[in-house]
Amino acid sequence: MDVRSILSILFGNTSSDYYTIIWNIRLPRTLVAVFVGINLALSGTLLQGVMRNPMADPHIIGVSSGAGLFGTTMLLVFPAFSHLLVPVAFVGALASALLIYLLAWDRGVSPMRIILAGVATSAFLNSGVSALYTFYSDRIQGAVSFMVGSLSAKSWGHVETIIPYSIIGLLLALLSAQRMNVLLLGDSESKSLGLNTEGYRLWFIAVSALLAASAISIVGMLGFVGLIVPHAARMLVGNDYRILLPASALLGVTVLCLSDTIGRIAFAPIELPVGIIMGVIGAPFFLYLLRKKRTL
């Protein structure tokens, strides 16, 4: 189809043979990708600032694992309450983030301790997911796409679910951008300027957990968006969070939509979940950062 035909369908041409495909399949899938890209990119940007770790990412340090364990529990153990998936995943993500922060704390935090605490926490939580798969093997089919990370079969219902969390998380992040800039000056400088450093760290962790959990509850365990996008955005606009956050949001949309497109057309008619594409891109990028920063 050409662009003119697509636009005519979007603006109300219901007579086209492609109306159902565009309006009920492609458009909601694209909108879900937009909001998930925004949420994961902002979550990673906030975590990297709070934890002062260039490799912090909801997936790598274990925040996603908390959301994944709680989300999988809802899908397998309490399927009748699946409508509570987002708030339950948020509780899991927040608990995981706080646990990692506490484990890494020793008169401050360091990149090495955060990575080690995140890996240990993630391994522990993932073992819980594996146990659920063992005990509820008869229900596992519905949770497979959740653990891989996929935009397949997303509907307007998914769009309606994620929109409120995306708007709230985006507004909270943008309104707190200046305080993040102050926090990055260091504890001594921040406190001298009157900032409650620990209070705002917990605040940013909560906002990051909300953003990550809302995305994960819709598309599953999608990793590396929050790692790649903030670094690319910093190279483009610098470290001022007032600019970095909106730039990361826009770049997150671009990266996720492009990755989903690649997954759909690279091996057509077989569709690769977007989580696999992001893993192929993100794992080498993580190793590159690990070598460049010499963090461990």
From TrEMBL:
Residues that span the membrane, as ranges: 27-47, 59-78, 84-103, 115-136, 156-175, 202-229, 241-258, 270-290
Membrane topology: Multi-pass membrane protein
CDD domains reported for this sequence: TM_ABC_iron-siderophores_like
UniProt keyword annotations, A-Z: Cell membrane, Membrane, Transmembrane, Transmembrane helix, Transport
Gene3D superfamilies named in the record: ABC transporter involved in vitamin B12 uptake, BtuC
Domain of life: Bacteria
Keyword Transport belongs to the record: yes
InterPro entries referenced in this protein's UniProt entry, alphabetically: ABC_BtuC-like, ABC_transptr_permease_BtuC
Cell compartments where the protein resides: Cell membrane
Secreted in keyword set: no
Coiled coil feature spans: none
Entry similarity comment: Belongs to the binding-protein-dependent transport system permease family. FecCD subfamily.
Name of the protein this chain belongs to: Corrinoid ABC transporter permease
